[in-house]
Design a protein that fits this description.
Oligomer: single chain
Pfam family, one: HTH_18
InterPro entries: AraC_XylS_family_regulators, Homeodomain-like_sf, HTH_AraC, HTH_AraC-typ_CS, Tscrpt_reg_AraC-type_HTH
Number of strands: 4
Shape: flat
Distance between the termini: 67 Å
Strand order of the largest sheet: 1-3
Radius of gyration: 21 Å
Number of helices: 10
Organism: Labrys miyagiensis
Protein name: HTH araC/xylS-type domain-containing protein
Keywords: DNA-binding, Transcription, Transcription regulation
């Protein structure tokens, strides 16, 4: 099997690749997806008994979605961890599982059942849960269960309804809470970081700046200036 930049190879569990040819210097990212994840997707997303769904070997495929997800995961492992990483990785795993089953399995030509919808009532329950728990570690499975959807369908429906992925929504809710506390001026930056769910001041500084273009200290100083 020849390995080239931008090319992916899908190997089912138990498949032993005996020879690999690397044609030029490159960086490789190996993603190991638990069989339980693809099994869950087979049942929840395609209404197929998990034992009947098997991934097939697909060497040297050019798949834009796989490339996009791999780049995002590479970005996560290349920087210090952030509190919303768990939500993103859960979403990426569900997306990958559904994509692999739909395109690279023995049931790939079978039409998927109609996608369920995220009703106003379901969305409200999820948003209420986030509102109560945004400072805690929230997993995608927990949010999806609140909406009675599989993680894969929930991620798609949530983004369609709100314009944001679940992990982005939670991150922005934490930033919103931090802005409010910074404006009050009562708590230290460390206290705000912990109360808003950032885990540490380092994460707080990095994520807040990514979302606002300012450090928490700069935001607080600007707010003070606007009140004088």
């Amino acid at each position: 099997m020849a390995v080239q930049p931008g090319i992916a190879s899908i190997l089912p569990v138990g498949f032993d690749e005996t020879e690999t040819e690397i044609v030029s210097p490159l960086e490789c990212l190996y993603i190991f997806l638990s069989p339980s994840v693809t099994a869950a997707s087979s049942l929840a997303d395609f209404d197929v008994d998990p034992p009947r769904a098997e991934l097939v070997r697909a060497p040297r495929v050019s798949d834009p979605l796989l490339k996009e997800v791999a780049a995002a995961l590479h970005g996560i492992i290349s920087r210090p961890p952030e509190p919303t990483d768990r939500l993103f990785i859960d979403s990426a795993s569900s997306m990958l599982a559904a994509h692999l089953v739909s395109k690279y399995s023995n049931i790939s030509r079978r039409a998927a059942p109609p996608s369920p919808s995220l009703s106003y009532q379901k969305l409200t329950r999820v948003l209420d849960l986030v509102e109560c728990r945004f400072a805690d570690a929230i997993g995608l499975d927990e949010l999806a269960a609140e909406a009675c959807l599989s993680p894969f369908h929930f991620s798609r429906m949530f983004q369609k309804a709100t314009g944001l992925s679940p992990h982005r929504y939670v991150a922005e809710r934490r930033v919103q809470e931090a802005k409010s506390k910074l404006a009050e001026g009562r708590l230290s930056l460390v206290e705000i970081a912990l109360e808003a769910g950032f885990g540490s001041q380092g994460n707080f500084n990095r994520i807040f700046r990514k979302h606002t273009g300012l450090t928490p200290g700069q935001f607080r100083n600007e707010h003070r200036g606007s009140r004088t």
